[in-house]
Amino acid sequence: MEILWEAPEKGTRIVEVEAGKKGLYTLHLEDGTSVSLWKEALESCRPKPGMEVTYEELENWVAHGQQLRAHKKALRLLERRSYCRKELEERLAEEVGALAAHQAALRMEELGLIQDEEYARRLSEEWACRKKYSQSRIRMELCRRGISKELADQVSREAAGDPREKIREWFAKKRNLTWDEKGRRRTVGALQRLGYRTEDIRVVMQEYCEYIDTEEKEKEYGLFRWDD
Prior knowledge:
- By secondary structure, the protein is of the alpha+beta class.
- The protein is about 60% helix and about 10% strand.
- The protein folds into three domains: about 10-80, Orthogonal Bundle (Arc Repressor Mutant, subunit A); about 115-160; about 160-228.
């Protein structure tokens, strides 16, 4: 809803204030143009039909409304779950635009309502313990959510631990594994999707069943390398 008037110091008159959906209102102007405002802006500037306004005032109303809307939306989102700053910013931008979303996310960070490191550590520990994700899978998921690569590298390494031990824990929780060809392929595929490397998968599976002992077997069962 960004407005770029050629002559912002000039003015016009409000002809009609039209209520729209989801808290958005439209000001129809005497010059034939229209401006969309969130209800938060209307509550502070109180535009009425017949009111004379400058284009600069209209721009300020739009920006102010977006900022108020972004702030309230951010608080509502954070009541439901945690976000990192980039993730919250992207979510807000869908509704209020990039600038207001950026300002609101920074404000939430200043208030201590979002903390990327704490958020990343909590998710890393949850994924490592509950889902048995590998370091590479944790790192990938954190980056996908907007965590910086440097922070994702650090916390994923700390949370993941020994990959072979994690694979052993994964095996220990499985009660319905089968060791025919189809079952072995399924097991290998599941571990690869968790991000584990070929060598770690092979070593731990050899502890359970001596069926991967040559490169030919590795090719036969479709093992591939998980890229960093």
